[in-house]
Amino acid sequence: MVARSSEVRSSAVRHSASRGAGGRRGRGAGRLAGLGLGGAALLVLLTGCDVGKTFAGFGWPQGGITPESHRMYDLWIASCIAALAVGFFVWGLIFWCVIRYRKRGNELPVQTRYNMPMEFLYTIAPILIVSVLFYYTAVVQTNVVATTKNPDVTVEVVAFKWNWQFNYRDGQGRDANTVASVLGTSDVIPVLVLPTGRSIRFEEQSRDVIHSFWVPELLFKRDVFPGNIRNVFEVSELQTEGAYVGRCAELCGSYHAFMNFELRVVSPQKYDQFLAAKKAGKSTQDALKAIGEPAYAETTQPFNTRRNSANFNPDSATAGAGS
Ligand SMILES: [Cu+2]
């Protein structure tokens, strides 16, 4: 066994010495360049069409309704394209090696070590890729979490087990006043009416445990904390009118899954009328009707607990039943 392995090694050395390495390296570099060009062409091809739509957003939700959501979406699509380009390049190299250097006999292949260009490439290229991804992530993230001094609309989001209250405020922070309010109940889904084209600030507070305010179309959610923490985020505008379901995205108890609300995005004129009607003392449903909007939520409905005295009465439950 030992003798055979040393034979192989010595023949490999002879094999390596008998061939000129220069020509092969030249051809290899040509192929590398070809693959690189192929990758670049693929990138141009992919960016030329609507890649996100073609590939269903690469798993990322589509249909964002804020500039922030579009930026996050674009970052994701660009990252996927970059990852695919690198992936195709690496897969190409792997298959090329598999075919080019497949076993042809018992001779060991050329043993390549200390190849500086190669080692430089696989050290520097990943660092560059990660740096670029990090840079664009930081830029987009900074934009998404940015807040301004004077947003057009400020809404206080109050979460509690298991519903929501939305307070329209006359300013920012704890000291501002609530000018109108929408409260969800077990029978009525709260409808949060907001305008297009205006910057909106959400100030979050919980009455009990941690909840999370989430409208999927904002492509953003932020936890709602109890106590002194007032989580804040802003969107620079809502771009598309419509009704969007909102959810609690933090497991907060038995009926967490049914802690829904609706975001109703309307024109600024309708929003002003809605707020005026609320300030005048109208109910949310009447105020919605007054601006020609459906009075109740369209995207979700109250959860029917199906509890009544016949099926939920712990005091009179038979001892040991079900055990
Ligand atoms: Cu919750």
TrEMBL record:
Ranges of residues in domain Cytochrome oxidase subunit II copper A binding: 150-277
Cofactor annotation: Cu cation
Organism superkingdom: Bacteria
Species this protein is from: Micromonospora globispora
One GO MF term attached to the UniProt entry: copper ion binding
Membrane topology: Multi-pass membrane protein
Family: Belongs to the cytochrome c oxidase subunit 2 family.
Residue spans of biased composition, Polar residues class: 298-316
Alphabetized PANTHER family for the sequence: CYTOCHROME C OXIDASE SUBUNIT 2, CYTOCHROME C OXIDASE, SUBUNIT II
Organism lineage: Bacteria, Bacillati, Actinomycetota, Actinomycetes, Micromonosporales
Catalytic activity as recorded in UniProt: 4 Fe(II)-[cytochrome c] + O2 + 8 H(+)(in) = 4 Fe(III)-[cytochrome c] + 2 H2O + 4 H(+)(out)
Gene Ontology CC entries for this record: plasma membrane
Record note on cofactor: Binds a copper A center.
Function: Subunits I and II form the functional core of the enzyme complex. Electrons originating in cytochrome c are transferred via heme a and Cu(A) to the binuclear center formed by heme a3 and Cu(B).
UniProt subcellular location: Cell membrane; Membrane
Its EC number(s): 7.1.1.9
Protein name (record): Cytochrome c oxidase subunit 2
Positions of the UniProt region annotated as Disordered: 1-26, 298-323
Alphabetically ordered keywords of this record: Copper, Electron transport, Membrane, Metal-binding, Respiratory chain, Translocase, Transmembrane, Transmembrane helix, Transport
Positions of transmembrane segments: 32-55, 75-99, 120-138
Pfam families with a match to the protein in the record: COX2, COX2_TM
